[in-house]
Design a protein that fits this description.
Helices cover 57% and strands 13% of the residues. The chain is an alpha+beta fold. Among the domains are: 241 residues, Up-down Bundle (Rhopdopsin 7-helix transmembrane proteins), CATH 1.20.1070; 78 residues, Pdz3 Domain, CATH 2.30.42; 70 residues, no CATH class; 158 residues, Heat Shock Protein 90 (2-Layer Sandwich), CATH 3.30.565. Strands 2, 3, 4, 5 and 6 form a five-stranded antiparallel beta sheet that branches. A five-stranded mixed beta sheet has the order 13-16-17-19-18. Helix 6 packs parallel to helix 9, helix 13 packs antiparallel against helix 14 and helix 15 runs parallel beside helix 20. The longest helix has 71 residues. It is elongated, with a radius of gyration of 43 Å. The protein starts with 7 loop residues before the first helix and ends with a strand. The relative contact order is 0.05.
């Protein structure tokens, strides 16, 4: 272990403070012993006869309604000058005699009270002075320990100063109330407590910007309150009323400084740059809040409102402050002493076990050989050899137990990495890679939630993956799919908190400020060959513990493994997509050649047939209805054949839809209205549209063509009777991208086994008169809208076609009320 204290000045300071602390404790205990068993007035006074706000239910003065923060002017009508004269008087009268006291307050009021004398016993001392001594010792002990471990840490130095001032004030207060040997040192330390609170607020957990810019502020603050201490000592015996007034100001400054410290801790928690700092402040905030807030309010009520309340009533809460800091040191690496505390516990436990092992060996040898015989010479070497063999496994086991107790780590670093390597090596699919990483984070590392932002290597788009839909949507909102925050995500080089990430982003329009609103504890980059493949957003640990260095190392290792797997998966997907595009291009080329040949061979004769039929229809008399009907059939079939040829040409020709943002609900309502008269009388068309569909970008003509093809296919599958229903509602896909999902369902026979895999293939049809172009064309149109078209056959009959349409660039996810046309 590296040395905790270095430098002769630091060593000398630490030794001097330890001696000073022991001396203060000795003086206070001796001061109490000097007064135990002797008569006292039934209440406590300072040497200058000021009555402090300190009392106990067992004291006679507490029952007599003693006015606190006043000065004793006379005893039984006789003026007194100091506490020694008061004590001489009460010890000159029989025990239990009611003594009449005249008090004067800062406002000039004079009050008279009668209080019986009593004997000062341990029962009177322990409830009050025991709390004083315990608080002071704990505060001083924790401060000295922190300084011993981290003497160069600014926060540790400020905490040491606070511990000496406040701890010394609490310890020496006992003497100031008993024998008055070190009263002037007490008032100097008491006057410096507000300065110590302000300096600690300025440096914990990190030095504040104001102190860094103006370091002289620290010395000005110390000088100002040191001057107050000099003033208190100057007025201490010469003018008790003015001393009381200055003392009131010190207590008020102490209360205000405590509230400033609380406000500083809260600000540090809300704006901590690292999760460690936030966890440290979070741990300390509750204890310091209880130790400071209630006593500060009580002091302000006593000083400003002149309430006769004993100030020591809130002193038990003071213990929560140093205890919370001590807990944070052991549990949350406060002042960065985690390594020393943990190693100290581990090696201390090992030492105890080694000693117990040696004692067991000696005791067993005495039982076996007799106590009068010496231990065989070969026992110790064998025991030492045994220690050499078991020391490292024993230390590792104890280390694991300490980690679980103090840091609640229940995972194995090596096992986690090996398991992740095995899982990711077999995946060539982005969704499976992401699922494996999310499982390792949320299940193995016990993290509340995790979300992965996969960055595309072919643009500034990203995909969002996560187990919790609510968190995924919230994070997706913070990272819009248009890539507005991707530039800073690509620049993330190491794990950092969301607040630090937001502050590092210079341009708030790029969405960086919104990152903090999703409340991730950390952003961890997944890097491959110097570039970010993804960024992992993780929440807090389920245990509530902070992320240690081991956690950060494991997170970065898992992220780097994920980066390699995601890179391989994306390369495989690109290759697969390229192959599919090549096959489709070859198929479209063949279809194009066929379409061109068909168009050339059919369209010209077809045009001649239609023209001739049109002329014949004009020459037929009105009375020849049967003949006119036959000619109309010829014209209709010619138009139908022309439409089929045009569809074949359109399918083979590349095209891009002209997307325009509009209300999809209105389009669906108009389509249903126009489609119902074209269906058989026994077929019912139902429309169910969510009233708050988001506005989409779509090409109305092509989307209508797709809807018409699907509805007509459903009607033909059902025959003369049945129901076709169209449903539309907001949704999001697996990556969290929002959009709208349409469902076109029918009550027909559904699909036979094996048909679903082929229904979108070109020229595949299940109808005797079908061409096999309609569904293939519909799928191509939806894909051009960046959407997906799928089909399923329901149990019990019926089929459902599902269309997912994402928000197009320029559209908005805001809900818009749907009003049927």
């Amino acid at each position: 272990m590296e040395r905790q204290i270095s430098g002769s000045a630091n060593k000398l300071l630490l030794q001097a403070l330890v001696v000073f602390a022991l001396a203060m404790v000795g003086v206070s205990i001796a001061s109490i012993a000097n007064q135990l068993g002797r008569e006292f007035p039934g209440f406590i006074v300072w040497k200058n006869l000021i009555v402090p706000s300190i009392s106990a239910p067992s004291w006679p003065g507490d029952a007599g309604g003693l006015p606190f923060r006043t000065v004793v002017r006379a005893v039984d009508g006789t003026p007194v000058q100091d506490a020694a004269a008061l004590r001489r008087h009460i010890r000159s009268v029989p025990l239990g005699t009611e003594v009449r006291y005249r008090f004067r307050s800062l406002t000039g009021n004079r009050e008279v009270r009668s209080v019986p004398t009593a004997i000062l016993t341990m029962r009177d001392v322990v409830p009050i002075f025991g709390i004083y001594l315990l608080n002071g010792l704990v505060l001083l002990g924790v401060a000295l320990t922190v300084f011993y471990v981290k003497p160069e840490n600014p926060a540790a130095r400020s905490f040491l100063f606070l511990g000496v001032c406040l701890g010394g004030t609490l310890i020496l207060a006992i003497d100031t109330l008993m024998s008055f040997w070190c009263s002037r040192l007490y008032f100097m330390l008491e006057s410096l407590v507000p300065a110590a609170l302000l300096l600690f607020a300025a440096t914990f957990p990190q030095p504040k910007g104001l102190v860094l810019r103006f370091p002289q502020l620290r010395w000005w603050t110390l000088a100002a309150f040191a001057a107050v201490g000099v003033l208190q000592n100057a007025l201490y015996l010469s003018n008790p009323l003015r001393h009381l007034a200055v003392n009131d100001w010190v207590y008020t400054a102490m209360a205000v400084s405590g509230l400033v410290l609380l406000a500083s801790l809260l600000e540090s928690f809300l704006h901590a740059r690292t999760p460690l700092a936030r966890q440290q402040v979070k741990t300390v905030l509750f204890g310091m809040g209880a130790a400071i807030f209630v006593p500060s309010l009580l002091m302000m009520a006593i000083i400003l409102l002149r309430l006769d309340i004993p100030m020591n009533a809130a002193f038990p809460l003071l213990l929560l402050g140093p205890l919370s800091i001590g807990y944070a040191i052991a549990r949350h690496d406060l002042f960065q002493v985690d390594r020393y505390v943990r190693n100290g516990i581990v090696y201390g436990a090992v030492s105890v076990l080694v000693f117990l092992g040696y004692a067991i060996v000696v005791f067993s040898a005495e039982l076996a050989l007799g106590a009068e015989r010496a231990l065989p010479a070969n026992v110790i070497p064998f025991y030492l050899l045994f220690l050499v063999l078991v020391f490292n496994p024993l230390r590792a086991r104890i280390q694991s137990i300490v980690d679980r107790v103090f840091y609640r780590q229940a995972y194995s670093y090596r096992a986690t990495v090996q398991g992740m390597s095995r899982a990711l090596s077999s995946f060539l699919n982005t969704e499976k890679v992401v699922a494996a990483v999310l499982a390792a984070l949320t299940e193995v590392m016990a993290i509340e939630w995790a979300t992965i932002l996969v960055l595309s290597s072919r643009g500034n788009t990203l995909r969002v993956y996560g187990d919790s839909p609510n968190i995924r949507e919230r994070v997706r909102a913070a990272f819009p799919p248009d890539g507005s925050s991707v530039g800073h995500l690509r620049g993330l080089e190491k794990a950092e908190s969301s607040q630090a990430f937001a502050e590092r982003c210079a341009d708030p329009t790029e969405g960086c400020e919104a990152i903090a609103e999703s409340h991730p504890a950390l952003l961890v980059p997944a890097r491959f060959e110097g570039a970010n493949v993804a960024v992992i957003l993780i929440g807090d640990k389920k245990s509530g513990a902070y992320y240690s260095e081991d956690d950060l190392d494991l997170l970065q290792t898992l992220a780097d493994q994920a980066a390699l797997a995601l890179t391989n998966a994306e390369a495989y997907e690109i290759i697969r997509q390229t192959q599919a595009d090549l096959v489709r291009s070859e198929r479209l080329a063949a279809v194009g050649e066929l379409a061109a040949s068909v168009a050339h061979g059919i369209r010209n004769p077809l045009a001649g047939i239609r023209a001739a039929a049109q002329l014949a229809r004009e020459d037929v008399a009105e009375t020849s209805s049967d003949l006119r009907e036959g000619i109309d059939d010829i014209i209709s079939e010619a138009d139908r054949l022309e439409m089929r040829v045009r569809s074949l040409l359109d399918f083979a020709r590349p095209f891009e839809p002209n997307l325009r943002v509009a209300d999809l609900g209105v389009l669906l309502d108009e389509f249903a209205t126009s489609m119902r008269p074209r269906l058989a009388a026994g077929i019912e068309l139902l429309l169910d549209v969510d009233p708050h569909l988001p506005r989409l970008g779509f090409y109305a003509a092509q989307l209508t063509e797709v809807m018409e093809a699907l509805v007509i296919n459903a009607a033909q599958a059902m025959g003369e009777h049945g129901t076709v229903s169209i449903q539309a509602h907001p949704t999001s896909d697996a990556s969290g991208e929002p959009g709208v999902e349409l469902h076109i369902s029918d009550t027909g026979p559904g699909f036979a086994p094996g048909q679903l895999e082929r229904i979108f293939s070109l020229f595949y049809t299940t109808k005797a008169q079908g061409t096999g172009i309609g569904l293939a064309m519909a799928q191509r149109i939806i894909e051009r809208h960046r959407g997906r078209l799928s089909a399923e056959s329901r149990d019990g009959g019926g089929a459902t076609f599902s269309i997912y349409l994402p928000l197009a660039p320029g559209s908005t996810a805001d809900a818009q009320p749907f009003r049927p046309a």
